C-alpha cells in the first residue's frame, strides 16, 4: 500500500495481484499542471500493473478530479450512490467527468488478487457522501477529510453534518485498524482518531449547552470556546450548526 501526497487530496495505491486499486484521484488538471500525468508517474514508480479499480471517498474536486482519465484507461470507479448524486449537482464538480459507474448504498466489499478492500459509509460528516476505505489485512483505513490537521470543514450545503460527524468516527473505531490515512497530512494512529472524535464531540456538546443556556443563532459563535481545540470557525459555520442542533 502506497501513499501519494500533493496535487489535491492524499491518494492510496494498493497492489492487488495483477491489478492496482486507487483511492481518490486528486484535483482536475489545469493549464499549468497535468495532475493525472503526475499521478501516473508516481503510480508507475510503484508498479506497471493496470489500475482496475478506483474508490472515491467523497465528491469534492480534489478527490474525484481525474476519474475520467482512469476510466478511459480501463478502470472501474466505485462510489456510494450519494456521492454520484452530489458530484452531479455540486457546482464545483458537476462539470467533472467520471462519476462512479458502480454504486452502493452503505457498504461494498471488493475482493481481487487476494486483496480485500471494503468501503463503508457510516453517516454524514464532512459531506453527505463520506466513505471510509478499509484494507483489513493491512489494518489500514482511509478516513479522508473526517480527520484534519486544520479546522474541520462541514459542507452543510452538500449533506455534511457536524452532529453526525462523531457517528462516522464511531464506525471507523469499530474497524480493526492500526493506521488511518487522512485526506491531507500524515498517517494517524488509532489513538489519534479517538482523540479527534473526542475533540469534535466536545465542540458539539459546548454548542448544544450554549443553545440550552439561551444563545441565539447570532450569539452562538461568541458562546462556544474553541481555542483549546485549536480550531477557528467562521460565523456561517455556527449559524448552520445552530440550525442543525435546533433542527431548523
Characterise the protein shown here.
The protein has 248 residues and is of the alpha/beta class. It has 8 helices and 12 strands. Strands 1-2-3-4-5-6 form a 6-stranded mixed sheet. Strands 7-8-9-10-11-12 form a 6-stranded mixed sheet. Strand 1 (2-4) and strand 2 form a beta hairpin. Helix 5 (165-173) packs antiparallel against helix 6. The radius of gyration is 18 Å and the shape is globular. The model has no long low-confidence stretch (mean pLDDT 97).
Describe the structure using short key phrases.
31% helix; 248 residues; alpha/beta; 12 strands
Helix and strand topology:
Blueprint: E1 2-4, E2 11-16, E3 19-23, H1 35-44, E4 51-55, H2 61-64, H3 67-72, E5 76-80, H4 81-89, E6 102-104, E7 107-112, E8 115-120, E9 132-135, E10 140-144, H5 165-173, E11 179-182, E12 188-189, H6 190-212, H7 220-223, H8 235-245
Parallel strand pairs: 3-4, 4-5, 5-6, 10-11
Antiparallel strand pairs: 1-2, 2-3, 7-8, 8-9, 9-10, 11-12
In short:
By secondary structure, the protein is an alpha/beta fold.
Order of helices and strands: EEEHEHHEHEEEEEHEEHHH
Q: Determine the number of helices (DSSP H or I, runs of at least 4 residues).
A: 8
Q: Based on CA inertia axes, which overall geometry fits?
A: globular
Main beta-sheet strand count, sense and barrel state: 6 strands, mixed
Number of strands: 12
Structural class: alpha/beta
Q: Give Rg in angstroms.
A: 18 Å
In the predicted model, the low-confidence regions spanning at least 5 consecutive residues are none
Strand content: 15-25%
Fraction of residues in helix:
25-40%
Question: Could you report the average pLDDT, rounded to the nearest whole number?
Answer: 97
- Spatial order of strands in the largest sheet: 1-2-3-4-5-6
How many angstroms does the end-to-end distance come to? Answer: 44 Å
Amino acid at each position: 500500500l502506497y501513499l501519494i501526497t500533493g496535487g489535491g487530496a492524499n491518494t492510496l495505491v494498493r497492489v492487488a495481484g495483477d491489478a492496482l486499486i486507487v483511492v481518490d484521484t486528486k484535483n482536475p488538471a489545469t493549464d499549468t499542471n497535468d495532475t493525472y500525468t503526475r499521478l501516473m508517474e508516481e503510480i508507475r514508480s510503484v508498479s506497471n500493473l493496470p489500475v482496475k479499480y478506483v474508490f472515491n471517498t467523497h465528491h469534492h474536486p480534489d478527490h474525484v478530479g481525474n476519474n475520467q482519465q482512469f476510466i478511459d484507461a480501463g478502470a472501474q470507479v466505485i462510489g456510494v450512490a450519494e456521492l454520484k448524486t452530489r458530484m452531479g449537482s455540486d457546482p464545483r464538480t458537476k462539470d467533472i467527468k467520471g462519476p462512479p459507474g458502480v454504486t452502493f448504498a452503505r457498504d461494498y466489499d471488493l475482493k481481487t488478487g487476494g486483496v480485500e478492500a471494503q468501503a463503508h459509509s457510516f453517516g454524514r460528516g464532512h459531506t453527505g457522501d463520506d466513505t471510509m476505505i478499509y484494507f483489513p489485512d493491512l489494518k489500514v483505513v482511509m478516513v479522508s477529510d473526517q480527520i484534519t490537521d486544520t479546522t474541520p470543514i462541514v459542507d452543510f450545503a452538500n449533506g455534511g453534518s457536524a452532529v453526525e460527524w462523531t457517528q462516522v468516527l464511531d464506525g471507523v473505531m469499530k474497524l480493526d485498524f492500526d493506521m488511518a490515512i487522512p485526506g491531507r497530512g500524515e498517517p494517524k494512529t488509532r489513538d489519534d482518531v479517538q482523540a479527534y472524535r473526542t475533540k469534535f464531540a466536545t465542540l458539539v456538546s459546548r454548542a448544544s449547552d450554549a443553545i440550552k443556556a439561551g444563545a441565539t443563532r447570532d450569539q452562538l459563535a461568541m458562546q462556544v470556546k474553541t481555542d483549546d481545540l485549536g480550531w477557528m470557525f467562521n460565523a456561517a459555520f455556527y449559524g448552520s450548526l445552530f440550525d442543525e442542533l435546533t433542527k431548523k
